[in-house]
Amino acid sequence: MLRRIISLLLLLGACQAVHYTPDWESLDSRPLPAWYDESKVGIFIHWGVFSVPSYGSEWFWYNWKTQQLPALSFFMQENYRPNFTYADFAPQFTAEFYDPNKWADIFNASGANYIVLVTKHHEGFTNWPSKYSFNWNAMDVGPNRDLVGDLATAIRKKTKLHFGVYHSLFEWYHPLFLQDQANGFKTQDFVKSKTMPELYELVTQYKPDIVWSDGDWMASDDYFMSKNFLAWLYNESPVKDTVVVNDRWGNNTRCKHGGFWNCEDHFDPGTLLPHKWENCMTVDKYSWGFRRNTKLQDIHTMDELIEQLARTVSCGGNLLVNVGPTKYGEIAPIYEERLRQMGQWLAMNGEAIYGTKPWTFQNDTTTAGVWYTAKKSAEGNVVYAILLQWPEGNVLKLGAPQPSTETKVTLIGYKGTPFTFQKGSGGGMVINIPTITFDQMPGQWGWVLKLEGLSNQATVAPRVQDLLQKMNG
User: Where does the Glycoside hydrolase family 29 N-terminal domain start and stop, copy by copy (predicted)?
Assistant: First the structure.
């Protein structure tokens, strides 16, 4: 017994003594904290000075200055005085209706388990009173308050959501960055005086569970000094045991290095990847920030959002759903409605999402629009079939699940006549769906069948098992 105790103590000591060095081999060996994979759903918030013109997209300044979109120049000529500059928008970033407690309530009702707030986009304006962004931050101009700190406090006080921060590594028009760029990124004046000090300040001051980096495509991770920061984050920071990061740390790191992979915006591989990943996508199909001229057809429907959720989680990813608040600090009603509707769906069907793992099959081999997840419960292994379309003729043919004499099929949220089934002639199963009245129908978008006792529900193909092991470190 004593020997076992000593061995356990030595093992615990070895775990605590793990030290990550500033190289990708070491940094990539850090296991991803389990809370992130189990969470499955997050909320992205794009908010900044770009929320004032709220026209085009959050890239307004860049597209206007470079004349990438002639419509922006016309918009400015028609609505603003001559010689108006982008900096003149900042005092109009008023946030007078910003109520962090209300935001926290909306995000909590969405069913998400974490949020990621844009603390600084490529425009360089910091939503917190950064010591490294003089007169271009939310305390000195515009809202005159700490937007980041206020939301962090509300989230932690009113919810159990994890709080995360987005931060851009570069700024479009910062003189020091432009000079580093002109020097072929052989100098690092911008990184040493702006990027890194801001990141250390954000982590030390707000203790985020996610550091979501962006603006990586301009230069390598060596220029941005990313590996040194991550080594500090994993070894010494106040969130070293819980924090997760993405893969945008230099133009050589996407889909290769980091905690979870973003790869690209709206990333939807449709297949299981050998690494934990995230699909960051927008409710507005054309912008991350709020647009005053958004049309209803520009907003993703709930059917489309549930499809993205099912596809993403089935393939081992997390879904990060973005909304863009107004310059006044409001989350527009259409965004709030979508988030609350998503929460209603997850309140009923969340067992097929939260804490699940990819199954042997990600989507069905016979019927399109059916995606699978799996979970080990107290009753045994369970497979969930997420149906994006209601079957015609009350008959559903599935090619992937193989039934046994112990198989049980239930529709989550439905308490009426039991479902029956038989083996398919060529394998799989044919499920007979009873007539369900309108008032018995569990929801309007996406339905989940719980499949228990399948002969292959505990079977994980070697390829899938290998990928799962890589995902789990």
Answer: 16-351
Residue 417: which pLDDT band, with cuts at 50, 70 and 90? confident
Q: Which helix (H) or strand (E) holds 255?
A: none
**Which of 376, 374, 370 has the alpha carbon at shortest distance from 391?**
370
Residue 203 pLDDT greater than 60, yes or no: yes
Q: What is the pLDDT of residue 16?
A: 55
Residues 234 and 244: their CA atoms lie apart, in Å, by 9
Dist CA 384 CA 350 (whole Å): 11
Structure tokens at 304: 């489309």
Q: How are strands ordered across the β-sheet holding 244-245?
A: 244-245, 210-214, 162-168, 114-120, 41-45, 317-323, 277-282
210-214 and 244-245: which strand pairing?
parallel
Indicate the Cα dihedral angle 366, 368, 369, 375, nearest 10°: 20
| 235-241 long-range contacts, CB within 8 A, separation 24+ | 235/19, 235/20, 237/203, 237/204, 238/203, 238/204, 238/207, 239/203, 239/207, 239/208, 239/209, 241/33
Q: Do domains 19-352 and 370-471 have the same CATH topology?
A: no
Cα separations in angstroms, 113 against 98, 100, 104, 152, 320: 22, 17, 11, 14, 10
Residue 10: which pLDDT band, with cuts at 50, 70 and 90? very low
On whether the 370-471 domain is CATH 2.60.40, my answer is yes
Tokens found for residue 312: 């993403």
What angle do helix axes 302-314 and 333-349 make, rounded to 10 degrees?
50
What average pLDDT does the structure give for the chain?
Answer: 94
Quick check: 45 and 116 in contact, CB under 8 A? yes
Q: Does 12 score more than 60 pLDDT?
A: no
180/178 Cα distance (integer angstroms): 5
Q: Which of 6-10, 53-57, 183-187, 192-196 has the lowest mean pLDDT?
A: 6-10
With 0-12 / 13-18 / 19 or more C-beta atoms within 10 angstroms meaning exposed / middle / buried, residue 395 is exposed
The pLDDT score that the predictor gives to residue 376 is 85
Q: Which amino acid is at 33?
A: P
Closest by CA to 453, choosing from 371, 370, 383, 373, is 383
What secondary structure does DSSP assign to 144-156, as a single string? Answer: -S-HHHHHHHHHH
CATH of domain 19-352: 3.20.20.80
Question: For 121-133, how does the pLDDT look when each residue is reduced to its tens digit (9 = 90+)?
Answer: 999 999 999 999 9
